[in-house]
Amino acid sequence: MSVRTRLDVRGVEPKNRFECIMGAYERLLELESLELTVDHDPKCMYYTLRATQGDEAFSFDYLDDGPETWRVLVQKLHAETAAP
Asked: Using CA atoms, how far apart are residues 22 and 49, in angstroms rounded to an integer?
């Protein structure tokens, strides 16, 4: 069974949102998902994950694509491994 965490950041101060969102993603275990609800396109999260985790480490799927509310489902496909 896959665990899904739901996070709605529409009530979070804009300056604190990125840290809140990325913190929630970092706490996911392998194959767990984050359902994120925001009031703008969260493509910055997608690009950050691509740059820091790589394309194969996560999936990023739009559930709602605006114009007032965006929801995405982000699944952590590979757990981070500690450096040797």
From this structure: 9
CA 17-22-25 angle, to 5 degrees, is 130
Q: What is the pTM of this model?
A: 0.87
Q: What is the mean pLDDT of residues 75-83?
A: 71
If we measure between CA atoms, which residue out of 79, 58, 73 comes closest to residue 5?
A: 73
**From the CA atom positions of the chain, what is the Rg in Å?**
13
- For domain 4-76, give the CATH number: 3.30.110.40
Q: What is the pLDDT of residues 54-73, one digit of tens each?
A: 999 999 999 999 999 999 99
pLDDT score recorded for residue 82: 44
CA proximity to 52, closest of 62, 44, 63, 61 = 44
Domains of the chain, by residue range, sit at 4-76
Q: Which residues pair with 70 in a beta bridge?
A: 38, 65
